[in-house]
Structure formats: C-alpha cells, structure tokens
Amino acid sequence: MIHESGFNDARVTNHDATSHDSIREIYLICGYICAMSATADDRDWIKVDLHIHTLDDPKDVIDYSAHQLLERARALGFRVLAITLHDAVFDRPEVFADAATMGILLIPAAEVRLCGADVIVLNVTAEEIVDLKNFDDLRRLRARRGMSIFTIAPHPFYLLGGSIGPRLLDEINCFDAVELCHFHKGLLNPNRRAAKVASRFGKALVATSDAHRLRAFGRHYTSIPRPPELTAENVFAMLRAGRISLTSPPCSFVDLASAIYFIFLAHPFRRRRYKQRRFATQKAFGVKNRLSLKRTPVLNPNRKRDTRIG
User: Fold this and answer.
1) Same-domain check for residues 206 and 263
2) What band does 60 get if pLDDT is binned at 50, 70 and 90?
3) Burial label, 36 (beta-carbon count in 10 A; 0-12, 13-18, 19+)
4) Prediction pTM value
5) What are the pLDDT digits (tens) for 203-227?
6) Sequence-ordered alpha helix ranges (H) in 153-289
7) How deeply is 258 buried, as exposed, middle or buried, from its count of CB atoms within 10 A (0-12, 13-18, 19+)?
8) CA dist., res. 113 & res. 104, Å (int)
9) 106-129 burial, b for 16+ CB within 10 Å, e for fewer?
10) Considering the domain boundaries, does residue 36 fall inside one?
11) In this structure, are 146 and 263 located in the same domain?
C-alpha cells in the first residue's frame, strides 16, 4: 500500500530489489516516502535516533542532560540512541550503564567536522576521532574497522550547520547513509536531493531528530526490525540492508517559527553568554592567551546537574 504522508510513518521492507527501486522512485518524484508493509507488526520494530545533542556538547550550548534524554526516550519507546557531540565522543560510563538498565542501546558516537563538513561517526572511540583530520583519514578508519563502524552525512544539502553540499558526491564512499533532516515543509525540503543521492549510490536514508532541545526529540526517527540481539553491528546491518521505516512529519508553521527563533536568536544569545563565561573563566584562572584558555575548565551557563536515574 502506497500513500503520500510527508515522510511520516514510512515503512520500507526491502525483500526484493523491485520493491526497493519503486520506493526509491517515490523519493525522486515527490519527495515523500510512502511504503507500508501489509504484514509488519509494529511490536517487531524498534525506534532509532542516531543524531542527538546534550549539554555535554563542547561546541553548542544545550539545556538538557543525557539522563533527561534517556527518561524521555524510555517514555517514547526508543531502543537505540547515539549522542553525537560536536568533535567529541560521548563516553560517560554511568550514562551507558543506565541506558543498558533501561533496555536502550547507547552507541558511542560523534559529529565531527572534516574540511568544513559535518560527519556523524558511530561506534567510535575518542582516540579514533582525534586522528580524523580529513576524508582520507575517515576512509582509512572505515577500511580498518569494516562493518563495525557506521557513518552518516547529516543535513547534507541545507545551507546552515556545516552541510557537506555537492561534495557529498565526491566523498560518497566515506558514508553508509544519508540523513533525512527533520526540518522540512512543502517546497522547503532539501531532503529531496539527499534522497536522490542515497538512491543513486545505494546508501541508506535515515531520519533523525538532530535534537538541540529536548522537546525536539521523539518526532523524527528511523525504525528497524527488532534484531535477535541488540548490538551496534546488528543495527548497522539492518540499516545497510535497507530494512527501515522513516518517521519525519513536515514542520508546522509553529515549528518553523520556533526553529527560526532558536537558530537565529535564542541559540546565538546562549553562545554569546557561553563566550562571556569562558572569558570570566580565563580571568579566574589567570589565563593570559586564548591558546591556554582552550585547556581551562569551562562551565556551560545553561548546565543542569545531570543526576542518575533511580
């Protein structure tokens, strides 16, 4: 059964190449994904979000904690998450332990900027991220790690936020998947081009929240059939095989206004406050230059105490 739904509640069960190709054609023609399985049971599918930020982020000023994210994820029925800090791997063991207790697979990940373009790298270590300077480094890491690592091109054709743009075509062998960005409404939908590239090169198209506010998490996500064992490698295998469901409803006008306010007003204001706090930290620690400042502790002015879940 096929119907238009604005990227909403889309199910892809690629049991044969013909059905897969027809679904891809839907991407290309109208920018909507609309494949529903007549036999799939929702209880056999799990929700996945592989692009999320928390207040641990060293570059963005976020006002919710990893544990607040876990509580919301549990309430909404998510089973796989990746906290993708900018240029840093989220590696707090107590959060991973609490996620496991809740039945949630938390995959170590980062959103790194290579040659001006953002790249999401999943199931990676802090040491591996430090060594990434360009796309050739990423190719070597992928060759060394094989199927145990997964990379996504986030918001590739949007004008803001470190998008890779047309260079995606040149660097496509660095990626396993292309992101279906949450921010789309009618003709405002660069995801159409992303879907076309994913189709052309046989890459997965994955929906994420790219949440910078807690309320933004939960509406945009990918679903996969529940694997026999919930591991990063099994999740990656499902995504590579194209056995996915995408849920990404178009923005409402309220969503658009809220996003514009956040991107152009609220978030820049937070970042200015963050920089002011950095300079206050510089003065308190007696730092004399900016290079040394990078090595001093920095307090996020919006940081809340991240308590463990009881």
Assistant:
1) no
2) confident
3) middle
4) 0.79
5) 999 999 999 999 999 999 999 999 9
6) 167-170, 191-201, 232-241, 253-261, 267-284
7) middle
8) 27
9) bbbbbbbebeebbbbbbbbeeebb
10) no
11) no
